[in-house]
């Protein structure tokens, strides 16, 4: 079950949120466009296996075509609406990757992926996934 923690009285800066994620690598943390902290639980074996397969297929396709860069669920994206999200699998064109400087490549990428896969578990809702 995903937990959303509301932070109406204060907001974490991008730097503070990145540090929070780095200091708590065992947690899967995301942030909504409103700044609320989203704590994602670890997945079960079936979901984890499906995620690995999906990411592998996307990586194999990209490796064959050499069109871009693939990311797994541990990669974060700073979206234009202010949210920080980590989709199960994502892809961006090579030119977007090459346009980033080395510092940007080491942080949550400041862009929306061109292709995203989000595998929904039985406890997920479509409304939550769309956010």
UniProtKB/TrEMBL annotation:
SUPFAM superfamilies: Restriction endonuclease-like. CDD domains: DUF820-like (cd06260). Keywords: Endonuclease, Hydrolase, Nuclease. Residues 15-128 form the Putative restriction endonuclease domain. Pfam families: Uma2. One of its GO terms (molecular function) is endonuclease activity. It comes from the Bacteria. This is Uma2 family endonuclease. It comes from Microcystis wesenbergii Mw_QC_S_20081001_S30D.
């Amino acid at each position: 079950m995903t937990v959303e923690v509301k932070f109406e009285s204060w907001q974490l800066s991008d730097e503070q949120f990145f540090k929070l994620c780095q200091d708590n690598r065992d947690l899967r943390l995301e942030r909504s466009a409103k700044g609320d902290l989203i704590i994602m639980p670890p997945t079960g074996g079936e979901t984890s296996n499906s995620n690995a397969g999906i990411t592998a297929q996307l990586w194999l396709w990209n490796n064959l075509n050499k069109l871009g860069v693939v990311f797994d669920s541990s990669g974060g994206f700073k979206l234009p609406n202010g949210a920080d999200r980590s989709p199960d699998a994502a892809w961006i064109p090579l030119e977007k990757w090459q346009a980033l400087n080395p510092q940007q490549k080491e942080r949550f990428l400041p862009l929306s992926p061109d292709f995203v896969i989000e595998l929904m578990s039985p406890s997920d809702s479509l409304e939550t996934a769309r956010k």
